[in-house]
Design brief:
53% strand; mainly beta; globular; 4-stranded antiparallel β-sheet; 7-stranded mixed β-sheet
């Protein structure tokens, strides 16, 4: 059974930081490209960052320089370090694993507010 479980979301003030984790099981993690996506209320789900199986990264322009995606193949986990958070970063954040099939986690809420 494939599982992707996000954690680390919460309420943070503008300018603050959060680290999201996505722990996976049931997949050969090292073969999967991983990504973080987010969906704000009433909006479509957008790409935030991706990391290939070899560690190559890509970021949405809106988070470039503030967010960092990384992976630990030994722990089958992908991370998203989010710094200098802004109110417009408020959304549910989802992780996605892609290989021959796509798998999604259930999401974790991130709220940036004073």
């Amino acid at each position: 059974q494939v599982q992707l479980v996000e954690s680390g979301g919460g309420l943070v003030q503008p300018g603050g930081s959060l680290r999201l984790s996505c722990a996976t099981s049931g997949i050969t993690f090292r073969l999967y490209a991983m990504g973080w996506y987010r969906q704000a209320p009433g909006k479509q789900r957008d790409l935030v960052a991706t990391i290939t199986k070899d560690g190559g990264t890509n970021y949405a322009e809106s988070v470039e320089g503030r967010f960092t995606i990384s992976r630990d193949n030994a722990k089958s986990t992908v991370y998203l370090q989010m710094n200098s958070l802004k109110p417009e970063d408020t959304a549910v954040y989802y992780c996605k694993g892609s290989y021959w099939q796509n798998y999604w986690g259930q999401g974790t809420q991130v709220t940036v507010s004073s």
